[in-house]
Amino acid sequence: MKTSVAIGKKIIREIRSLPVQQQKKILEVVLLLKIGIKASHKKHSITELKGCGKKIWKEIDAQEYVNKLREEWN
């Protein structure tokens, strides 16, 4: 099982490998979440992110990932 740091680095690598337009969409959503704004001037749908980062989670078992995060919290 990979650590959350290793997964974070993998996510960054995968985002960098995406086309610039997809990177911009991800950045905009993250920034809006960070500052707490629910909508920008242009309304977006979460479905715009469909497929972004799909390769990141390909080899990761979701339950194992959640279990590992829960262990880190204790």
Class based on secondary structure composition and strand pairing: mainly alpha
Proportion in helices: 55-70%
The beta-strand count equals 0
Proportion of strand residues = under 5%
Oligomeric state of the chains?
A: single chain
Mean pLDDT: 83
Order of secondary-structure elements: HHH
Give me the Rg, rounded: 14 Å
Major β-sheet profile = none
Overall spatial form: globular
Distance between the termini: 18 Å
Poorly predicted residue ranges? none
**Number of helices in the DSSP assignment:** 3
Description:
The protein has 74 residues and is mainly α. It has helices at residues 4-17, 20-35, 62-73. The mean pLDDT is 83. It is globular. It is built from three helices and no strands. The two termini are 18 Å apart. 57% of the residues lie in helices and 0% in strands.
Concise account of the structure shown:
This protein is an all-alpha fold and 74 residues long.
Features:
mainly alpha, 57% helix
How would the blueprint of this fold be written?
Elements: H1 4-17, H2 20-35, H3 62-73
